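Entry type: protein chain
Record version: 2
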Amino acid sequence: MRRPVVAGNWKMHGSKAWLEAWVADWQKRIDARAELIVLPPAPYLATVRALLGDRRVRVGAQNVHAEANGAFTGEVAAEMVKDAGADCTLVGHSERRQRCGESDDVVAAKFVAARRAGLTPILCVGESLDERKRGAAADVVLRQLDAVIARAGIAAFDDALIAYEPVWAIGTGVVATPDDAEEMHACIRVRLAEHARDVAAAMRILYGGSVKAGNAAGLFAKPNVDGGLVGGASLDAGEFALICNAA
């Protein structure tokens, strides 16, 4: 049995006062046996780690640089976020791919960097609406996955996480149906199995794309959907608690 995972990506939101209120409210509401992850902006990693206290709730970064150090003004190394209290990180989020021009090669390098620093990578893959309309959704997602396997090796996926996030469903209010999610998650698992059946069987694949309290249970009920990567809904402590409890 794969333990469900729910991760809340706060993106560029929050303040210290907001964090304190959110954590206090959320902790009163959760009654979940799923693995829980919160992903605050980098300046608040240590603050959130201290506020949560409970090490059973994991804290992750939203992004890391591929290099351990160097003349990269404004960037943050995987080792730095590890030192600040993170134990996992997103890699290749669609917003990074689209808005920051991160290629498959860059994402693969960041996956390797996360492993180097002792962080659990949460590899994000997903297609645009145009790619889906052209019938290329699976090709795009598998290309993104293959690039990381080629660079890091299948063994590097042991205890990593994968998040399928259809770009057309992020922040739009449009959500893939449970059957849409299940189909792509199964496709990802089959590709992993071509390299290592044990890794494929154990891999927890999260759905990310307008996950809300109202649709979480239907998504999580699918056999290959092992939880969710939650964006906007995670900013509401009450709604995020309902999603966590649904898992």
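Comment: Strands lie at 5-9, 35-39, 57-61, 88-91, 120-125, 161-164, 204-207, 227-230.
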